[in-house]
Design goal:
globular; Arc Repressor Mutant, subunit A; mainly alpha; single chain; 277 residues; 434 Repressor (Amino-terminal Domain); two-stranded antiparallel sheet; 12 helices
Protein backbone atom coordinates (compact mmCIF):
# COMPACT_ATOMS: atom_id res chain seq x y z
CA UNK A 1 0.00 0.00 0.00
CA UNK A 2 1.24 3.50 -0.81
CA UNK A 3 2.45 5.88 1.87
CA UNK A 4 -0.41 8.06 3.17
CA UNK A 5 1.58 11.12 2.03
CA UNK A 6 1.07 10.07 -1.57
CA UNK A 7 -2.72 10.33 -1.32
CA UNK A 8 -4.89 13.41 -1.80
CA UNK A 9 -8.28 11.72 -1.25
CA UNK A 10 -8.90 10.34 2.24
CA UNK A 11 -11.86 8.27 1.00
CA UNK A 12 -9.49 6.35 -1.30
CA UNK A 13 -6.92 5.92 1.45
CA UNK A 14 -9.52 4.32 3.75
CA UNK A 15 -10.65 2.02 0.91
CA UNK A 16 -7.07 0.92 0.17
CA UNK A 17 -6.28 0.46 3.87
CA UNK A 18 -9.30 -1.79 4.31
CA UNK A 19 -8.51 -3.81 1.17
CA UNK A 20 -4.95 -4.46 2.33
CA UNK A 21 -5.99 -5.47 5.86
CA UNK A 22 -8.75 -7.68 4.47
CA UNK A 23 -6.31 -9.44 2.14
CA UNK A 24 -3.89 -10.24 4.96
CA UNK A 25 -6.20 -11.18 7.84
CA UNK A 26 -9.76 -11.59 9.07
CA UNK A 27 -10.87 -7.98 9.04
CA UNK A 28 -14.36 -6.54 8.65
CA UNK A 29 -15.89 -3.12 8.29
CA UNK A 30 -17.58 -3.70 11.65
CA UNK A 31 -14.22 -4.32 13.33
CA UNK A 32 -12.71 -1.26 11.66
CA UNK A 33 -15.66 0.99 12.46
CA UNK A 34 -15.83 -0.05 16.13
CA UNK A 35 -12.08 0.56 16.51
CA UNK A 36 -12.71 4.14 15.37
CA UNK A 37 -15.57 4.58 17.86
CA UNK A 38 -18.60 4.54 15.55
CA UNK A 39 -21.82 2.68 16.29
CA UNK A 40 -22.85 1.99 12.70
CA UNK A 41 -21.02 -1.12 11.41
CA UNK A 42 -20.97 0.16 7.82
CA UNK A 43 -20.20 3.85 8.34
CA UNK A 44 -16.56 3.64 7.23
CA UNK A 45 -17.56 1.51 4.27
CA UNK A 46 -19.82 4.36 3.16
CA UNK A 47 -16.96 6.81 3.75
CA UNK A 48 -14.61 4.73 1.59
CA UNK A 49 -17.20 4.81 -1.21
CA UNK A 50 -17.64 8.59 -0.92
CA UNK A 51 -21.22 8.23 0.27
CA UNK A 52 -20.42 9.67 3.72
CA UNK A 53 -17.78 12.05 5.02
CA UNK A 54 -15.70 12.32 8.17
CA UNK A 55 -15.89 15.28 10.50
CA UNK A 56 -12.57 16.78 11.53
CA UNK A 57 -12.96 15.29 15.02
CA UNK A 58 -13.74 11.86 13.60
CA UNK A 59 -10.69 12.08 11.34
CA UNK A 60 -8.39 11.82 14.36
CA UNK A 61 -10.16 8.68 15.61
CA UNK A 62 -10.06 7.02 12.19
CA UNK A 63 -6.40 7.91 11.74
CA UNK A 64 -5.61 6.34 15.11
CA UNK A 65 -7.60 3.22 14.20
CA UNK A 66 -5.37 2.91 11.11
CA UNK A 67 -2.25 3.33 13.32
CA UNK A 68 -1.38 6.69 11.78
CA UNK A 69 0.66 8.75 14.22
CA UNK A 70 2.52 12.05 14.21
CA UNK A 71 2.94 13.65 10.79
CA UNK A 72 0.98 10.83 9.11
CA UNK A 73 -2.06 11.54 11.26
CA UNK A 74 -1.63 15.27 10.69
CA UNK A 75 -1.53 14.70 6.92
CA UNK A 76 -4.63 12.50 7.00
CA UNK A 77 -6.53 15.17 8.94
CA UNK A 78 -5.46 17.80 6.41
CA UNK A 79 -6.90 15.61 3.63
CA UNK A 80 -10.22 15.66 5.47
CA UNK A 81 -10.03 19.46 5.83
CA UNK A 82 -9.24 19.76 2.11
CA UNK A 83 -12.37 17.76 1.29
CA UNK A 84 -14.43 20.05 3.56
CA UNK A 85 -13.02 23.33 2.21
CA UNK A 86 -15.68 25.47 0.54
CA UNK A 87 -13.59 28.07 -1.29
CA UNK A 88 -10.60 27.83 -3.61
CA UNK A 89 -8.57 29.89 -1.13
CA UNK A 90 -9.30 27.39 1.67
CA UNK A 91 -8.49 24.45 -0.61
CA UNK A 92 -5.20 26.02 -1.74
CA UNK A 93 -4.19 26.79 1.84
CA UNK A 94 -4.96 23.25 3.02
CA UNK A 95 -3.32 21.56 0.05
CA UNK A 96 -0.19 23.66 0.55
CA UNK A 97 -0.04 22.38 4.14
CA UNK A 98 -0.30 18.83 2.78
CA UNK A 99 2.56 19.55 0.36
CA UNK A 100 4.66 21.03 3.15
CA UNK A 101 4.27 17.89 5.29
CA UNK A 102 5.15 15.68 2.31
CA UNK A 103 8.15 17.84 1.37
CA UNK A 104 9.62 17.66 4.87
CA UNK A 105 9.47 13.88 4.73
CA UNK A 106 10.84 13.68 1.15
CA UNK A 107 7.65 12.30 -0.38
CA UNK A 108 6.55 13.56 -3.78
CA UNK A 109 2.82 13.97 -4.36
CA UNK A 110 2.25 13.58 -8.10
CA UNK A 111 -0.74 15.92 -7.99
CA UNK A 112 1.44 18.42 -6.16
CA UNK A 113 3.52 19.12 -9.26
CA UNK A 114 0.39 19.72 -11.34
CA UNK A 115 -1.05 21.95 -8.62
CA UNK A 116 2.15 24.00 -8.33
CA UNK A 117 2.49 24.36 -12.09
CA UNK A 118 -0.98 25.79 -12.65
CA UNK A 119 -0.98 27.81 -9.43
CA UNK A 120 1.07 30.64 -10.98
CA UNK A 121 1.10 32.25 -14.43
CA UNK A 122 4.91 32.41 -14.23
CA UNK A 123 5.31 28.67 -14.80
CA UNK A 124 3.48 28.28 -18.14
CA UNK A 125 4.97 31.56 -19.42
CA UNK A 126 8.54 30.65 -18.48
CA UNK A 127 8.09 27.13 -19.80
CA UNK A 128 7.53 28.71 -23.23
CA UNK A 129 10.01 31.57 -22.81
CA UNK A 130 13.10 29.75 -21.46
CA UNK A 131 13.64 27.50 -24.53
CA UNK A 132 13.24 30.58 -26.76
CA UNK A 133 16.11 32.36 -24.96
CA UNK A 134 19.07 29.93 -25.09
CA UNK A 135 21.92 31.03 -22.88
CA UNK A 136 19.83 33.72 -21.18
CA UNK A 137 20.22 34.32 -17.46
CA UNK A 138 17.21 34.58 -15.10
CA UNK A 139 17.50 38.38 -15.03
CA UNK A 140 17.16 38.59 -18.83
CA UNK A 141 14.11 36.30 -18.74
CA UNK A 142 12.59 38.37 -15.93
CA UNK A 143 12.96 41.55 -18.01
CA UNK A 144 11.26 39.83 -20.95
CA UNK A 145 8.16 38.95 -18.92
CA UNK A 146 4.98 40.96 -18.83
CA UNK A 147 4.11 41.80 -16.05
CA UNK A 148 7.44 42.34 -14.29
CA UNK A 149 8.94 39.62 -12.09
CA UNK A 150 12.31 39.19 -10.37
CA UNK A 151 15.27 37.03 -11.36
CA UNK A 152 14.74 35.07 -8.13
CA UNK A 153 11.17 34.26 -9.15
CA UNK A 154 12.42 33.08 -12.55
CA UNK A 155 15.03 30.83 -10.93
CA UNK A 156 12.48 29.37 -8.53
CA UNK A 157 10.06 28.58 -11.36
CA UNK A 158 12.72 27.06 -13.62
CA UNK A 159 14.14 24.90 -10.82
CA UNK A 160 10.67 23.62 -10.00
CA UNK A 161 9.90 22.76 -13.63
CA UNK A 162 13.20 20.90 -14.06
CA UNK A 163 12.50 18.93 -10.88
CA UNK A 164 8.96 18.19 -12.10
CA UNK A 165 10.31 17.12 -15.52
CA UNK A 166 8.41 19.85 -17.35
CA UNK A 167 11.71 21.30 -18.58
CA UNK A 168 15.17 19.82 -18.87
CA UNK A 169 18.62 21.13 -19.75
CA UNK A 170 20.45 19.97 -22.88
CA UNK A 171 24.21 19.35 -23.13
CA UNK A 172 24.80 23.09 -23.63
CA UNK A 173 22.83 24.00 -20.52
CA UNK A 174 19.85 25.41 -22.42
CA UNK A 175 16.27 24.66 -21.44
CA UNK A 176 14.14 22.39 -23.61
CA UNK A 177 10.56 21.24 -23.14
CA UNK A 178 9.98 17.58 -22.31
CA UNK A 179 6.56 17.76 -24.01
CA UNK A 180 5.06 20.20 -26.50
CA UNK A 181 2.09 21.00 -24.27
CA UNK A 182 0.89 20.52 -20.69
CA UNK A 183 -2.70 19.57 -19.87
CA UNK A 184 -4.49 19.44 -16.55
CA UNK A 185 -5.41 15.75 -16.79
CA UNK A 186 -7.79 14.04 -14.35
CA UNK A 187 -6.11 15.30 -11.16
CA UNK A 188 -8.53 15.99 -8.33
CA UNK A 189 -6.86 19.10 -6.90
CA UNK A 190 -5.60 20.73 -10.09
CA UNK A 191 -8.90 22.53 -10.95
CA UNK A 192 -8.41 24.65 -7.81
CA UNK A 193 -5.12 25.98 -9.18
CA UNK A 194 -6.46 26.27 -12.73
CA UNK A 195 -9.33 28.50 -11.60
CA UNK A 196 -6.77 30.74 -9.92
CA UNK A 197 -4.69 30.79 -13.10
CA UNK A 198 -7.75 31.83 -15.13
CA UNK A 199 -8.33 34.70 -12.71
CA UNK A 200 -4.71 35.84 -13.04
CA UNK A 201 -4.78 35.65 -16.83
CA UNK A 202 -8.16 37.44 -16.94
CA UNK A 203 -6.67 40.37 -15.02
CA UNK A 204 -3.70 40.50 -17.41
CA UNK A 205 -6.13 40.54 -20.36
CA UNK A 206 -7.82 43.64 -18.91
CA UNK A 207 -4.44 45.34 -18.53
CA UNK A 208 -3.56 44.46 -22.12
CA UNK A 209 -6.54 46.45 -23.46
CA UNK A 210 -4.74 49.66 -22.56
CA UNK A 211 -1.17 48.48 -22.12
CA UNK A 212 -0.53 46.62 -25.38
CA UNK A 213 -0.62 48.26 -28.86
CA UNK A 214 -3.69 47.25 -30.85
CA UNK A 215 -1.63 45.64 -33.62
CA UNK A 216 -0.10 43.29 -31.00
CA UNK A 217 -3.35 42.06 -29.45
CA UNK A 218 -6.74 40.81 -30.60
CA UNK A 219 -9.97 41.11 -28.65
CA UNK A 220 -13.41 40.15 -29.94
CA UNK A 221 -16.65 38.91 -28.45
CA UNK A 222 -20.23 37.82 -29.10
CA UNK A 223 -23.40 38.07 -27.05
CA UNK A 224 -25.75 35.24 -27.98
CA UNK A 225 -29.12 33.85 -27.00
CA UNK A 226 -28.81 30.04 -27.02
CA UNK A 227 -30.37 26.75 -25.92
CA UNK A 228 -28.68 24.01 -23.87
CA UNK A 229 -28.17 21.98 -27.05
CA UNK A 230 -26.48 24.95 -28.71
CA UNK A 231 -24.30 25.43 -25.63
CA UNK A 232 -23.10 21.82 -25.78
CA UNK A 233 -22.33 22.14 -29.50
CA UNK A 234 -20.46 25.42 -29.03
CA UNK A 235 -18.35 23.97 -26.21
CA UNK A 236 -17.40 21.08 -28.49
CA UNK A 237 -16.50 23.56 -31.25
CA UNK A 238 -14.31 25.49 -28.78
CA UNK A 239 -12.50 22.26 -27.85
CA UNK A 240 -11.81 21.54 -31.52
CA UNK A 241 -10.70 25.13 -32.05
CA UNK A 242 -8.21 24.85 -29.16
CA UNK A 243 -6.74 21.70 -30.70
CA UNK A 244 -6.29 23.53 -34.01
CA UNK A 245 -4.57 26.46 -32.27
CA UNK A 246 -2.18 24.09 -30.47
CA UNK A 247 -1.38 22.38 -33.78
CA UNK A 248 -0.55 25.74 -35.40
CA UNK A 249 1.55 26.92 -32.44
CA UNK A 250 3.56 23.70 -32.17
CA UNK A 251 4.14 23.34 -35.93
CA UNK A 252 7.37 25.37 -35.65
CA UNK A 253 10.13 24.96 -33.10
CA UNK A 254 11.05 28.67 -32.93
CA UNK A 255 9.38 31.19 -30.61
CA UNK A 256 9.42 34.96 -31.14
CA UNK A 257 7.13 35.85 -28.26
CA UNK A 258 4.91 34.15 -25.65
CA UNK A 259 1.17 34.84 -25.97
CA UNK A 260 -1.83 33.87 -23.88
CA UNK A 261 -5.17 32.93 -25.48
CA UNK A 262 -8.22 33.12 -23.20
CA UNK A 263 -11.42 31.49 -24.47
CA UNK A 264 -14.32 32.56 -22.25
CA UNK A 265 -17.93 31.55 -22.73
CA UNK A 266 -20.24 32.28 -19.81
CA UNK A 267 -23.87 33.26 -19.02
CA UNK A 268 -24.87 36.91 -18.69
CA UNK A 269 -28.41 36.10 -17.49
CA UNK A 270 -30.07 33.71 -15.04
CA UNK A 271 -31.96 30.82 -16.58
CA UNK A 272 -35.70 31.25 -15.98
CA UNK A 273 -37.51 28.25 -14.51
CA UNK A 274 -40.90 29.57 -15.64
CA UNK A 275 -41.02 31.76 -18.72
CA UNK A 276 -44.73 32.44 -18.33
CA UNK A 277 -44.45 34.85 -15.44
Amino acid sequence: MKDVLKYTDYHQYIADYYAERKAKSVFTWQTFTRAAGFSSPVFLKYVSEGRSNLSEDAAVRVASAMSLMGYEQEYFCEMVKFDHAKTDEEKKSTFNRMLAIADVHKVRILEGDSFRYFDSWKNPVLRELAPAMPGAKPLAMARACRPKITAAEVSESLNFMVKANLLQKDKDGNYVQTEKSVTTGPMAVTPVAVRGLHRQMGEFALDAIEGVPQDKRHFSGLTLGITQNAYDEIVQAIAEFRKKIIAIATREDDTDEVYRLNVQFFPMTKKSVDNKG
